[in-house]
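Sequence design from tokenized structure. All designs in this work follow the same two-part layout: the structure record, then the generated sequence. An example of the structure record is given first.
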């Protein structure tokens, strides 16, 4: 709103010192991050007190984990703090007419509502299972198809073919960074495309039309159908992966903040004609605005960590974890970086994979040997490293000795997340 207000004042010919700062993505990104941090820290305390008064506390099943019982009654549904902080930063400093920002706001509210419904059932209906897996999956898939169909149908979501740097130099001025993200361009350079970014190849590009079994008109429809299905899969996987990672104090918030920083950098580079040409990466007009959204996203998570770091004063619940994963998945898709997700979000990927493999192996061995066997002592993977009771039945990889404190596990997961983040950025130059 501040951005649009200052733009309106400028259109009226009103000028005062600092008015031109809103033209710069860098300034608005920093202000969005600061706004989100302050909102999270200031509003967070009041929201936590409200949750305590309403007795909205975590229900805990005794799994034998160290310090687990002490967490019983800790306020949950703290994801409301994250959502509020993100929206405050975005609504104040983003261009709300930008299609990418609109989609990210819709995704935030959609996933937030889905997670809130799940937490509501757990807390107020006293159903520990919460919303059914099919119900959550359906909600995530519907969002994925909404985003995918919008990417397909919207004339505002395009990619620009490689153009000479001189074009950007002519259009670029020292007064504004908007020019390199939404400047004039030759119509034939802008295309609706199913191309995405992939590492280790010369042009860093992969086209989903290569997977189409048809050619001609049917091939055109088939490539978009494949792309939309892929978008739905990525968004659903990211949302669930973050949800599974939310099991230790500060783990999901910290690792997600690291991912958000990388996505913000990629959005900045991909939305800037000069930088994208220099790095030889895909230029997506208007996507630089995503960098501001991701700044608010990271700021909200940092502010939330003030209360969520060990020992946690509040848990984000599914309200927060589903929202965080949805934002990560949608932003990656909009920037055509979804195929980098397995590396960038390697921790989320490993957590999800550990659960799937454990379940599959347990069912297979129970059917074959009459007794279920485990690969890890407990999943998701972060619980494998905690002190706990010995699991029933044989375990392929027993619990580590000595078991690790949850704060140490969290920090080490952060370190791994940083390594994966740096590796993802390095891929932009490896071909």
């Amino acid at each position: 709103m501040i951005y649009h207000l200052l733009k309106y004042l400028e259109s009226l010919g009103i000028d005062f010192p600092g008015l031109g700062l809103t033209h710069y993505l860098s300034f608005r990104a920093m202000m969005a991050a600061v706004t989100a941090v302050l909102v999270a820290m200031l509003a967070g305390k009041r929201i936590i007190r409200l949750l305590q008064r309403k007795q909205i506390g975590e229900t805990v099943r005794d799994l034998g984990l160290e310090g687990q019982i002490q967490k019983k009654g800790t306020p949950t549904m703290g994801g409301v703090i994250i959502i509020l902080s993100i929206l405050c930063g975005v609504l104040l400093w983003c261009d709300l007419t930008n299609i990418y920002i609109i989609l990210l706001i819709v995704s935030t509210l959609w996933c937030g509502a889905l997670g809130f419904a799940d937490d509501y059932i757990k807390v107020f209906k006293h159903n520990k299972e919460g919303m059914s897996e099919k119900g959550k999956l359906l909600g995530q898939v519907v969002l994925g198809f909404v985003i995918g169909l919008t990417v397909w149908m919207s004339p505002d979501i395009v990619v620009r073919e490689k153009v000479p740097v001189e074009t950007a130099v002519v259009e670029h001025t020292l007064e504004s960074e908007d020019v390199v993200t939404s400047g004039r361009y030759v119509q034939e350079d802008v295309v609706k495309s199913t191309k995405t970014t992939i590492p280790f190849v010369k042009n860093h590009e992969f086209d989903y039309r290569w997977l189409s079994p048809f050619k001609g008109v049917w091939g055109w429809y088939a490539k978009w159908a494949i792309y939309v299905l892929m978008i739905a899969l990525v968004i659903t996987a990211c949302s669930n992966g973050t949800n599974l990672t939310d099991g230790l104090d500060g783990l999901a918030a910290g690792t997600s903040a690291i991912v958000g920083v990388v996505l913000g950098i990629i959005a900045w580079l991909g939305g800037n004609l000069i930088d994208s040409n220099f790095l030889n990466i895909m230029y997506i007009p208007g996507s630089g605005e995503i960098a501001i959204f991701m700044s608010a996203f990271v700021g909200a998570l940092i502010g939330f960590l003030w209360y969520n770091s060990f020992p946690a004063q509040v848990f984000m619940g599914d309200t927060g974890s589903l929202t965080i994963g949805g934002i990560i998945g949608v932003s990656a898709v909009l920037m055509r970086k979804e195929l980098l997700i397995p590396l960038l979000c390697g921790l989320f990927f490993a957590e999800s994979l550990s659960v799937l493999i454990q379940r599959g192996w347990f069912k297979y061995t129970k059917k074959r040997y009459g007794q279920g066997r485990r690969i890890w002592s407990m999943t998701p993977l972060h619980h494998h490293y905690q002190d706990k009771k010995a699991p029933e039945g044989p375990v392929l990889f027993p619990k580590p000795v000595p078991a690790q404190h949850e704060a140490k596990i969290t920090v080490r997961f952060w370190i791994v997340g940083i390594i994966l983040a740096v590796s993802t950025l390095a891929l932009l130059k490896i071909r």
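The two ends are 41 Å apart (CA to CA). We note this feature because it recurs in several other targets discussed in the main text.
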